[in-house]
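From the methods appendix. Each design record in this collection lists the tokenized structure first, followed by the designed amino acid sequence. Records were kept in a plain field format so they could be parsed without special tools. The example shown here is representative of the layout used throughout.

RECORD:
FOLD TOKENS (100 positions):
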């Protein structure tokens, strides 16, 4: 149970520290709030509806941008989290070998 709490605390530290990366990803993918709203409307709309409205390519592009944004933000969190867990485990091993 303490390991779970430590991981939750680690996520609570990692997520806010990445705000500049999230802002960069936001500017890369959307740029403006209106662009994000448009993309979100396309993502929530069914692909078939977009096909009949002749907006399939806009829908696909908007879905790609939202997916890229989520992938960048989630990937950064995952990579940092795993990296920090590996560092903590290595430090535990070193500390254990010194005391053992």
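DESIGN:
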């Amino acid at each position: 149970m303490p390991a779970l709490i430590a991981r939750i605390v680690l996520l609570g530290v990692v997520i806010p520290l990445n705000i500049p990366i999230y802002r960069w990803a936001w500017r890369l993918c959307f740029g403006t709030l209106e662009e994000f709203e448009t993309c979100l409307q396309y993502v929530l709309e069914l692909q078939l509806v977009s096909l009949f409205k002749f907006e399939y390519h806009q829908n696909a592009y908007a879905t790609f941008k939202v997916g890229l944004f989520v992938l960048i933000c989630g990937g950064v969190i995952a990579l940092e989290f795993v990296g920090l867990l590996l560092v903590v485990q290595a430090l535990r091993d070193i500390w254990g070998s010194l005391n053992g």
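APPENDIX NOTE: The mean pLDDT is 88.
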